[in-house]
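Weekly sync, protein design subgroup
Attendees: M.S., D.O., the rotation student, P.L. (late)

Item 1: inverse folding check
M.S. brought a backbone from last month's batch and wanted to see whether the design step gives back something sensible before we order anything. D.O. pointed out we never logged the input encoding, so this time it goes straight into the notes. Structure tokens as presented (74 positions):
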């Protein structure tokens, strides 16, 4: 199962930050969103509607230069 969850507004207030997850399903088809693995963290730029993916697969990763530029985050 893959799913997208809103995380928060970016540091500079110009983007909404979303986390794209993948979670394995059980034999009965159920899944638990709390056990998901990060596939990417993306920024939705309010003014342009662009989506900039960071390439981050862990919270502590730095992320792409374009992601850092639009979000104002390191």
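Designed sequence read out in the meeting:
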């Amino acid at each position: 199962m893959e799913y997208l969850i809103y995380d928060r507004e970016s540091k500079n207030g110009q983007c909404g930050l979303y986390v794209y997850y993948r979670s394995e399903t059980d034999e009965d088809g159920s899944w638990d969103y709390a056990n998901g693995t990060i596939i990417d963290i993306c920024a939705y730029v309010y003014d342009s509607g662009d989506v900039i993916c960071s390439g981050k697969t862990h919270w502590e990763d730095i992320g792409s230069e374009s992601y850092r530029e639009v979000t104002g985050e390191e």
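Discussion: The chain has a mean pLDDT of 94. DSSP finds one helix and four strands in the chain.
Action: P.L. to compare against the previous round before Friday.
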